[in-house]
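Today's session is about reading a structure prediction critically. Students often jump straight to the picture, but the first step is always the sequence itself: look for stretches that repeat, for charged clusters, for runs of hydrophobic residues. Only then move on to the predicted structure, which in these notes is written as discrete structure tokens rather than atom positions. Here is the chain we will use throughout the hour.
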Amino acid sequence: MLAMIVPLLLAAAAPSAGDRVELETRVVEIFQSYRGPPNAVAAWDNPIYSAEVAALIARWKAVMPQDEVDALNDGDWLCQCQDWDGDGFQATIVSMAMSDEDTAVAELSVELGFGGPDSIRGEQVTFRREQGVWTIDEIVAEAFPNGLKQALRDTIAEDEALAAGKPG
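Below is the predicted structure for this chain, in token form.
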């Protein structure tokens, strides 16, 4: 039994001081555009994603309906919202753990700035270090209960079916 517990504890180690500073800085960079008026750049157009997620985004954008809303293009992926108050917006790291030297999982609390419990979103973000930069490799949240990557795969299939005239 002890042999099974030790690997599990090691798998969820705290980040080193250097990694923690890098990850905290990256979270601030990623959410900085929410402080102030809404930004015209969609979350999926920011270069903040891992190579795997970026490839899925490129595939999704290639099949996305041009004049219709699909399952992913009607809200912001990072704040899990359509609107926010830039004066009160805040993303806070609740906890962070390393699953390996290049993968960190952060629990975030995102306050949209309106006050009250309906203004708070929780999400789990997996960061992957690629070429020395921390990138978003997964988001699990109310809008993506099975993760952003699965939502992208599902929406790509739905959009392809729609384009082919088949029910999604």
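Discussion point for the tutorial: The domain at 2-163 is CATH 3.10.450.50 (Nuclear Transport Factor 2; Chain: A,).
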